[in-house]
Amino acid sequence: MGLSNSSNRLRTALRGERTYEKRKILVLGCMGSGKTTLCRMLAKSANAQLCPARFYKHTIENNLLEICKEIYRIACAHNIIGSQQFEGDMTILMNFRHKEDLHKNAVEAMKRIIKSNLYSEIVKDKKRILDLPYNAPYFMTNYERILDSRFYPTDADLTIIYSQTVGVNFQSIDVGVVRYELYELPGHHIFRRYWTEFYPNTNVIIFLIDLSDLCRAAMYDGGHLQDKVRKILLAVTMSKLLHNTSFILLFNKRDLLEEIGAGFSFAGLGAGMKSWESAEKYYMEQCQSAVPPTNEVYQHIMSLTKKPDMNTTLFESLEKIFQSGVRSLDLE
Length: 332
Description:
Number of domains: 2
Largest sheet: 6 strands, mixed
Strand content: 5-15%
Binding site for GTP: 252-255
Oligomer: single chain
Distance between the termini: 49 Å
CATH superfamily of the largest domain: P-loop containing nucleotide triphosphate hydrolases
Organism: Pristionchus pacificus (Parasitic nematode worm)
Helix content: 40-55%
Radius of gyration: 22 Å
Binding site for Mg(2+): 36, 165
Low-confidence stretches: 9-16, 324-332
CATH topology of the largest domain: Rossmann fold
Keywords: GTP-binding, Magnesium, Metal-binding, Nucleotide-binding, Transducer
Protein name: Gpa-18 protein
CATH class of the largest domain: Alpha Beta
Strand order of the largest sheet: 2-3-1-4-5-6
């Protein structure tokens, strides 16, 4: 005869082990929505083991390298005066294979492009900056430190970088008597077909949504981003394996939407869309409509790069979902 759950807990307690109530959470979203940043912040808040910061040095340098390439490409596409004189530098960067440390020629080429007038000319028109990665301003401000041979990544660097999820990132986070088992899944369309393999026994799905997409041309006139997130979310919620699963919709990059949205035309979303606030409200309603009324759903607006207070957002929602006295975490 098997032992009851209470008997198992008693035997565990007598051995001096701690018992946890396990909760399975999937972290989903499209590429660049902020999944990795969220998981790292949660892990750090719970003092969980993290990958050493030095391991991200290559990724951070590569982010800056790609930004320099984009600056040159956009400058040429918009016929910005002086862009052609950096053709030689671009050739150096295109031929560079970032397998080891940045070599001197690549560093000097990047510095010349960054110090030129190309970036300032691009950002004069807010519509042009949308072609650049959202973290471009941060890298343009910190490029000297990043290109220094003694560079060591900071927490701010790790929060702002873009690092594509490859495979499955698993993180176990203990909060009081609850053990949250987070599975971060890749957002690329090639990998989304495998999401269903992780659905069984899932308690909560945290779905991240990039609000800055509202300011991208591809969101309008039949572009590839138009209605993309809602359709992906709808496909997730329609799975019978998630009939009793709760959803937390995290609308990320609010700061970027507010910055770029001023003066942007959202008329393509529908009548009455005269501001980024109205566009945001419409987008949130569209996404929430993809979750069936039978599933519990919570929504939060945030900017992960601004280190939001998770105690009043994510963990508050988790407490309500699990109806347990989970203590707060300090993310400061």
